[in-house]
Design goal:
about 15% strand; disordered C terminus; Rossmann fold; alpha/beta; six-stranded parallel sheet; 16 strands; eight-stranded mixed sheet
């Protein structure tokens, strides 16, 4: 089976935690890394050039390629501005497929922008289209209310893709229910496939030195946040919770530090990140500069050291399609304190591997932090926390279910009845 995957705005090679990079990058990397374990499977991921260093074809593994094509400026561009470059990218993708005589069996698109590209590719080459949203605008809008600044076409496009796609892959039961209720599509059109966690990347670092930028003092309590700097991630709730603790639990407040991983390169990207600017101003006004430390983004291979150095990972999101960072922390044996939303509710086992709190409620988070540090020793040990998450989630299982489902959809491909005279592009009669 030959898979034509589209990830228009997001290159799997991009540094995690920057603007527009995160869980989707991880998802694509992991699917690529195990492709060779599935005989007869080949996957090509088409993405736009964002860096002149990454042009043309790069082999991710023997059975997986990432193909960089022109589609707008060769630099990172805010996702809200990328819509206008879809036609250029689509034309280049069609030309590439024709010139290289690639014979694909299915189009597999990630995020709404890629879905619109995939729809055109499906029409041109008579291929079934399978789409995965990763995030949904209408769910994000409900969570953020007035702070949502998505492209005006996104809501319409996501509903359109729900109707025209041959099948949809959903990463959570919560998302699946919302797709059915919001768009009125049959649940039979949606395949629920959970993402996974990589046990060779994420494991407890025992007796190892903490990262240099997270050296903790004696009796210091360390909280960690990992992810993009975006209002939907809810970091302001953590900052406000620290202010609550300063008033209500001064002894705990004095011991706490929050380290934030994400936002791109510390010196170059962070100062230009609008959410960083908003957070930094709030931190300054609340006089929390000594308590909150921004570290910038880190390579995925470095993250286990940060997870292992923390007492707990805080996931204060107001909306998450799943919450990969929570699973990564748990695989490192680190408890998670998370918003009571979506699939995070089932990942966090109250009082065993973590605690939950009401989203956007600093007082609720402050109460959870007080409770956590008062009963921390009663939580599961690192080995059990790790074992529990690995028993339930793995990228091997995700890949098996994904590739099997794509093969099933590809098997329903309608036979070609005519061949166009233009470059041999197949057309339906």
């Amino acid at each position: 089976m030959n898979i034509c995957a589209v990830s228009f705005h997001c290159c799997p090679f991009s540094l995690l935690g920057g603007d527009g990079t995160g869980g989707m990058n991880v998802y694509l990397r992991e699917l690529c890394s195990v492709a060779e374990d599935f005989p007869g499977t080949r996957i090509d991921i088409f993405t736009r050039i964002q860096n002149p260093k990454f042009r043309g074809i790069r082999h991710f593994s023997p059975h997986a390629r990432v193909i960089h094509l022109e589609g707008g400026p060769e630099r990172p561009v805010d996702r809200t501005e990328l819509y206008d470059y879809l036609p250029e990218f689509t034309r280049n993708m069609e030309s590439f497929i024709v010139q290289n005589k690639d014979d694909y069996d299915v189009v597999y698109t990630h995020y709404w922008l890629s879905g619109l590209v995939g729809e055109k590719i499906r029409e041109t080459f008579n291929l079934p289209l399978v789409h995965i949203y990763h995030t949904l605008a209408f769910m994000k809008r409900k969570a953020l209310e007035s702070e949502n600044r998505e492209h005006s076409s996104r809501l319409r496009s996501e509903e359109h893709l729900a109707r025209v796609s041959d099948a949809i892959i959903s990463s959570s039961r919560h998302e699946m229910r919302n797709l059915v209720n919001e768009y009125g599509i049959p649940s039979s059109k949606i395949k629920l496939i959970y993402p996974g966690v990589n046990p060779t990347l994420f494991f407890p670092v025992v007796n190892g030195r903490a990262p240099r930028d997270v050296q903790r003092k004696k009796r210091e309590r360390v909280l960690l946040f990992v992810g993009r700097l975006d209002p939907v991630k809810g970091l302001m709730t953590v900052i406000d919770a620290l202010s609550v603790l300063r008033k209500e639990e001064a002894s705990l407040y004095d011991q706490l530090k929050l380290f934030i991983v994400g936002g791109g390169r510390k010196d170059k990207d962070l100062p230009q990140n609008q959410e960083y600017i908003r957070l930094a101003e709030s931190i300054r006004k609340k006089k929390l500069a000594e308590k909150v430390i921004f570290l910038g983004s880190k390579k995925q291979s470095q993250l286990r050291r940060y997870y292992s150095a923390a007492d707990a990972l805080v996931v204060p999101s107001v909306y998450e399609s799943f919450g990969l960072v929570a699973m990564e922390a748990l695989a490192c044996g680190t408890p998670v304190i998370a918003s009571r939303i979506g699939e995070l509710e089932s990942i966090v086992r109250e009082g065993k591997n973590g605690l939950s709190f009401c989203p956007e409620d600093p007082a609720s988070l402050a109460d959870s932090l007080k409770r956590f540090f008062s009963v921390q020793d009663s939580f599961w040990k690192k080995e059990r926390i790790r074992g529990d998450i690995l028993n339930n989630f793995s990228w091997g299982k995700t890949a098996t279910e994904t590739y099997s489902f794509l093969e099933k959809i590809a098997g329903k491909r309608a036979p070609l009845t005519t061949i166009s005279q233009r470059g041999g592009i197949p057309r339906q009669a």
